[in-house]
Amino acid sequence: MTRYPDLPKPLRSGLILLDPDTGTPRRVIVLQFNPDTLERSLAPQSAGDSADSGGGGSGSGDRNEALRLKGPAQETWKFTAEIDATDQFEVAAPDGVHPQLAVLEMLVQPTTAQLREATRLTERGAIEISPIEMPLTLFTWGSKRVMPVRITELSVNESAFDVELNPIRASLSIGMRVLSVSDLPAGHRGADLYMAHLAQKERLAAAARGGRLAELGLGRGLQA
């Protein structure tokens, strides 16, 4: 039997919940299986877009602003995460995949303690109650893609159950929006992490081979 002891162990993708003030990880969520595909989209925030064009570059605003950007592109990610309790090496099965589903569902839910505190403030007649702040969520896909995100979509498809009707196999469709410096206040830890994410893109872009005009059938001058 042939062995390959030097092959590196594949990295897992996942999510990290950080305390937004201290940056201390509160929870690390390692996806059981890396998604087979990723869907990404970037919508440029063009300064010349009209107010109702949605920032997608199709507006008919000021011609003097055609080459200007208001800020970073709005970047969204979508993927499907698979969870399977029959893989005994990864998931403890007494409750099926309930615990793994609950961890991901709590990414978009306040805790009972937070809700009780909001109720207590309401009963005390607080004039203004701030929206509940969630932990800062990072999505990681290898060392070159670590970014602050907000979960925008979470749908669950449970496809198999045990005799007690615990789900033992499920897939989750997860949609995320990358949080940029346009979304976060100056000095926020998430804003710094976004800048590191963007700087990584710049380094990768600089490493790409540049083309030549001749390859496009064009001359140096690009004159009409």
Which helices and strands, and how do they pair?
Elements: E1 14-18, E2 25-30, E3 39-46, E4 69-84, H1 98-105, H2 112-123, E5 136-140, E6 146-161, E7 167-178, H3 189-207
Antiparallel strand pairs: 1-2, 1-5, 3-4, 4-7, 5-6, 6-7
Describe this structure in words.
- With 224 residues, the protein is of the alpha+beta class.
- The protein has a domain at 10-45 and 69-111 and 133-195.
- 17% of the residues lie in helices and 30% in strands.
- The protein is built from three helices and seven strands.
- Strands 2-1-5-6-7-4-3 form a seven-stranded antiparallel sheet.
- The longest helix is centred in the last third of the chain and has 19 residues, at 189-207.
- The protein is globular and about 70 Å long.
How would you sum up this structure in a few lines?
This protein is an alpha+beta fold.
Oligomer: single chain
> What shape does the CA trace take?
globular
Poorly predicted ranges (pLDDT <50, ≥5 residues)? none
Measure the end-to-end span: 65 Å
What strand order characterises the main sheet?
2-1-5-6-7-4-3
Distinctive features:
224 residues, globular, alpha+beta
